[in-house]
Every structure is written in structure tokens, then in C-alpha cells.
Amino acid sequence: MSMELDQETLDLCLNCEKPLPPKAKFCPHCGQKNNNGKVRMKELLKRFWSHFSHLDSKVVRAIWQLMIPGKVTVEYFKGKHKKYPHPVQFFFVVMFFFLLSFNKQIGDKGFSFNNIGNNFNFSFNPTEKEDKEEITGEMVLESLKYSAKKHSYLRAYDQLPANLKNKETERALDSVLSTVYKKENRNLLRVQHVTDSIALSSGDSLNLNNDSVDMNLLTFKSKIALDDLFNQTPEEIIENYAVKGWMEQVLLKQSLKSFKNPQGLVHTYIGSFAWTILALIALMALVLHLFYYRQRRYYVEHFVFLMHQHSGAYLMLTLALLLSSLFPLGPIWIVLLGWIGISMWVALHNYYRQRWWMTTLKWFMYVVIYVIGFGLLFTISLLLALFLF
Q1: ∠126-132-133 over CA atoms, to 5°?
Q2: For the chain, which end, N or C, has fewer CB atoms within 10 Å of the first or last residue's CB respectively?
Q3: In this structure, are strands 123-124 and 111-112 parallel, antiparallel, or unpaired?
Q4: What is the C-alpha to C-alpha distance for residues 26 and 9, in angstroms, rounded to an integer?
Q5: Spatial distance between the Cα atoms of 198 and 368, rounded to a whole number of angstroms
Q6: Quick count: other Cβ atoms within 10 Å of Cβ 312?
Q7: Degrees (nearest 5) of the Cα angle 322, 383, 235?
Q8: Residue ranges in the chain modelled with pLDDT below 70
Q9: Beta pairing, strands 212-217 & 220-225
Q10: Angle at CA of residue 281, ends 279 and 283, nearest 5°
């Protein structure tokens, strides 16, 4: 019975609900097959393979032809739209895999307290092979928490009567703390050892024995005790440290968040990086529109051209990131970045068809404006990520 219903033609399309011509096999409005909505397994697998192979062929074609500067854009505006993936859609797919690879590479490496003052201006990215145990952000934070607990116990010890305080009781207290917080103490010694080693070459050291930190973020500056940092809420800190003004309070809250979860801030920005690049593309498309205004091209032509160029560039960077997880690339990074710049130069010539000397001049101006625009948008995006984090 259901097999017969599959072949039954309907009066209205089940997808768009538009009237169907008599005995129509497909809807003339949306293209859906005219049936009662039931699908056989054979037909389901056939549709899947058709869509997959069609998409796969588009993607593969786009990937290798994007390596030829300007080719995909030239083909696209010759009317071959179905031959390639949608430029914006493909760009976001490429950026997804790029950010996924980049996020995987970062992990907890590059952990840093960038918003903190002199005593805690610290960054770490283990590169030495002998560092078998990687120092992560969580380990540093656990060490700071343990240091805060240790200071609180020492302050309580200092309040004891003088006859109870001597070297033996002090050693006993240290022994108890080391036993109770064995893991935290081990992390503390490990982190302090590594950071002291880094300080020998860089001059920067992370002194985990301090009882306070200097919190600096834009215009906000304040010294906060470690005990308060880990045991009080931001609202309590604002009240106890008499932080006045809405902006100062916001900066303090965000500073505390980034201190306790610096990688979260980094990942927040990474998540918005694709939108930053998209805004940069929109800006640079306007620049190209001004550069080539005599060619009477639409703005969208410059926009699609840059979408293709950036997709190709980030495809190469994604591949490089994947390879770097297997073996160090070293100077290959310089070659890759150089090729991305040269590829843009060649693409400008191939697409806009101007003489080489004119293309070179516009390429040079494009690079200068691009660097300035990237720096500006990067800063704005970072600030937005910081305030929205």
C-alpha cells in the first residue's frame, strides 16, 4: 500500500504548499519530488551519494584551483557559479577548519597573564624537549591558589603567641601544608623552577611567593591580595577595594576573569576571528573598488575576489598547522607567508589585467592598508572579546 502511495501525485507540494500541475513529478516552485513524503532506503542513499559527490567535486576543484592566483574568481564571474562552492559559505568552512587546527595547536600553550603588572608579567610556551611535563595554565593557577592558602596559614601562624612560634613549629607547618596539598605543592615547585629558568634568559620571573598581584587592564590599576583574588567575588572585591566608577568596575571584573581563565579569553577571541577577517575583507574590497574604479566593476566583484584569496590562504595555513603537529616547519613558515603575499600580487594582475608596474604599485599600497586595517580590527575585536568574555 505504501509503495503505491509513493507514486501517488498530490494537488499541493508538501514542501512549499504551492499548487502542482496535473501528474507533475516535481514541484515547479521548489523542485521537490511529488510524493506523499515517504522515502525508500534506496532513494535516501541515492540522494546522499548525489549530494556528497556533487559537493565533494566542487570542494576538491575549488581547493586546487585556488592555488592558481585569481583563477577561481575569473571563472566565477564568467558565469560558472555551479562549478564552485558559494564563496562566503566556502570561506566559513575553511575558517572553521583553520580555527579548529589553530585552537588544537594552542591548547594550554602560550599561557600568559598579559593583564598583570610587574610581578606577574608572565608567558610560557614550552619548547625544550627535556620539559617532559608541560606547564599548563591550570597548573599555574593551582600553584597561585596554593600560594594564597599558604600565605593565609602563615598569617594565622604569625598571630600565635610568641612562645609557640619557633623554627620547629614553622617546619611542622610547612610539612603539614606540603602533605595536605601535595599535588599543589609539587605544581608550585615545578612551575617556579621552570619560570626561574626562563627568567635567566628573558629577565622576567613569576614570583609565586608574593602575597598580592598588580592587576592592570587599560586604565584600571590595582594591587589585590591573593587571598581576596581567590576567596572573594568580584562584587566583594569592588566593595572592599573601593573601586569607583562604572568603567573601572567593569575593567576590574574582566581583569579578574582573564586572570583566572586566560585561555578562555583567547578561545573567545579565536571564535570571533572569522568575523574579524570577514570585516577586513569588506573593508579591503572597498579599497580595491577605489583602486580599480575605472574598470566599472561592482563592489561584489572585489568582495568575491578577496573571499577566494583568503580562502586559499587559510587553506594553506590550515595544512601547515596540521603538518606542524607532526614535525617542526621552521623556515617553511616564512616561505608560506611570502607565497601568500606573492600570490595576492599575481592574483591582482591575473584578475584585473593591468600592467605589472601598476599592479605592483597597487599591491604595495594594498599591503600597507591591509596591515593597518588588520591591526585596527584586531584591536577592536580583542577589546570586544575582552568586554563580552
Answers
A1: 75
A2: N
A3: antiparallel
A4: 10
A5: 35
A6: 25
A7: 115
A8: 1-10, 31, 34-58, 106-141, 181-214, 216-220, 262-266, 389
A9: antiparallel
A10: 70
Residue linked to cell 514542501: 15
pTM of the full structure? 0.64
List the grid coordinates of 269: 577571541
Cell numbers 594553506: residue: 316
| Radius of gyration of the chain measured on its C-alpha atoms | 30
Q: Per the structure block, which three cell numbers stand in for 182?
A: 601535595
> Containing H/E element for 221?
strand 220-225
What's the grid cell of residue 214? 598588580
Reported residue count of the chain is: 389
Name the helix (H) or strand (E) containing 217.
strand 212-217
H/E run at residue 112:
strand 111-112
Quick one: residue 272, left, alpha or beta (phi over 0 = left, psi -120 to 50 = alpha)? alpha
- Alpha-helical runs (H) found in 261-331: 262-291, 299-324
8 A C-beta contact, residue 224 and residue 215: yes
Q: What is the C-alpha separation between 265 and 271, in angstroms, rounded?
A: 10
pLDDT in tens, 243-299: 888 888 887 887 777 777 766 666 777 778 888 999 999 999 999 999 999 998 999
Q: What are phi and psi of 220, to 5 degrees?
A: -90, 130
Neighbour count for residue 132 (Cβ, 10 Å): 7
Q: What is the pLDDT of residue 228?
A: 77
Cβ count near 98 (within 10 Å): 23
Q: Is the alpha carbon torsion for 69, 73, 78, 79 positive or negative?
A: positive
* DSSP states along 226-259: HHHHHHS-HHHHHHHTT--SHHHHHHHHHHHHHH
Do 314 and 98 touch, CB atoms closer than 8 A?
yes
